[in-house]
């Protein structure tokens, strides 16, 4: 593996463990009462279990001081303008998710469905990220999340950590969605007129712009908040789980996005589903447990997102080509099957490496598309129809 690949791989994996998955340090020290007290506990975290059993896993780092925006943000004010049509309110609710945020991620299993069930540790992590409006074409809106984080250790502040995060695409009355069906496989599904009418689809993509899940739902607008609830949706294991859990294969659940004056909230109601190797439901114990997730996006001020703006300015044309070619490849197939590794490497390493080079050299779209197409097709299984 070339040195740059090793560096990017090690950097990303380090960040991955710091911010998104179970931290070994936390596990090794959770038997110590003092370390337990340092971690916030959940209100309904199985109170009859021992104290340290419910200490949240996840990121254990601390960031710099954050200042919350004391006023209702502009996206909220735009949404509250009088005389808007229902369609325009929907659009403005989606656009209101853009901007600078402190993010918090909380998940906890609340119900077990098998006799031997034992709840896993809750999960907590955090971040600071900027959500960019990538496209706004009336009935289609694309939002890209870029993390810009500063970690504080022993009174020292790290250099800015910039990382392309997830993307969400919203489309009005979309006739076909790409549905996850298990085993790293996605299938196109046509929606009925009833499912389409007045609804917005939300497609979520991973850091390398590969598909993750897609669903549809209707926005509802109240005087104090606007909210969108998805249909029940299958999703692959999230990054916070797939390196530490192998006892289930699917998240089957609902997503709700709610816009409020201080930002927005992403709520999840997830059922953990067990499949066998042939993607058939097991006759017994098909559902393992249920978890709730709460991700808060709070508007902040005076946080230096300049490194993220600079990264996006230099790479947005490249990532646009990545999105275009992904779209072309998905359009050609009714079923998309992805390889997790090619030559021992995940897809993001190749794409992130190319983006990193653009920090010091201009992007050539013609050459970039050749690289992107070859790279993506290497990760799509040949037998996919």
Can you offer a commentary on this structure?
The protein has 385 residues and is an alpha+beta fold. The chain has one domain. Helices cover 27% and strands 36% of the residues. The chain has 10 helices and 19 strands. The strands form 3 sheets. Strands 4-5-6-9-12-13-14-16-17-18 form a 10-stranded antiparallel barrel. Strands 2-7-8 form a 3-stranded antiparallel β-sheet, with no helix packed on it. A 3-stranded antiparallel β-sheet has the order 10-11-19, with no helix packed on it. A hairpin with a 2-residue loop joins β10 (176-182) and β11. The longest helix has 26 residues, at 306-331. It is globular and about 60 Å long. The two termini are 32 Å apart. Mean pLDDT is 87; it is low at 16-34.
């Amino acid at each position: 593996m070339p040195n740059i690949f090793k560096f990017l791989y090690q950097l990303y994996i380090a960040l991955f463990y710091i911010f998104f998955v179970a931290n070994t340090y936390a596990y090794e020290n959770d038997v110590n009462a003092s370390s337990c007290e340092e971690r916030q506990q959940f209100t309904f975290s199985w109170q009859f279990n021992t104290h340290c059993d419910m200490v949240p896993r996840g990121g254990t780092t601390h960031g710099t001081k954050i200042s919350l925006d004391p006023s209702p943000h502009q996206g909220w004010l735009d949404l509250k303008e009088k005389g808007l049509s229902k369609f325009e309110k929907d659009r403005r609710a989606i656009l209101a998710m853009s901007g600078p945020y402190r993010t918090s991620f909380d998940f906890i299993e609340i119900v077990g469905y098998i006799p031997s069930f034992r709840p896993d540790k809750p999960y907590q992590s955090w971040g600071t990220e900027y959500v960019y409006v990538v496209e706004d074409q009336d009935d289609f809106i694309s939002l890209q999340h870029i993390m810009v984080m500063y970690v504080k250790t022993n009174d020292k502040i790290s250099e800015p950590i910039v990382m392309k995060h997830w993307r969400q695409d919203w489309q009005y009355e979309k006739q076909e969605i790409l549905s996850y069906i298990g085993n790293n496989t996605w299938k196109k599904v046509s929606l009925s007129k009833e499912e389409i009418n007045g609804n917005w689809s939300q497609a979520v993509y991973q850091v390398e712009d590969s598909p993750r899940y897609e669903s549809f739902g209707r926005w509802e607008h109240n005087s104090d908040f606007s909210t969108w609830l998805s249909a029940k949706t299958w999703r692959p294991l999230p990054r916070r789980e797939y390196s530490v859990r192998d006892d289930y294969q699917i998240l089957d659940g609902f997503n709700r996005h709610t816009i409020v004056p201080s930002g927005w909230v992403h709520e999840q109601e997830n059922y953990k589903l067990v499949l066998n190797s042939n993607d058939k439901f097991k006759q017994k114990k098909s559902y393992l447990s249920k978890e709730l997730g709460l991700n808060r996006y709070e508007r902040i001020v005076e946080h230096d997102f300049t490194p993220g703006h600079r990264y996006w300015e230099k790479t947005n044309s490249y990532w646009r080509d990545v999105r275009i070619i992904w779209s072309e490849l998905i359009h050609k197939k009714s079923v998309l099957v992805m390889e997790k590794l090619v030559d021992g490497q995940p897809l993001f390493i190749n794409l992130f490496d190319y983006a990193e080079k653009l920090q010091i050299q201009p992007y050539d779209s013609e050459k970039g598309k050749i690289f992107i197409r070859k790279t993506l097709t290497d990760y799509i299984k040949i037998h996919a129809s």
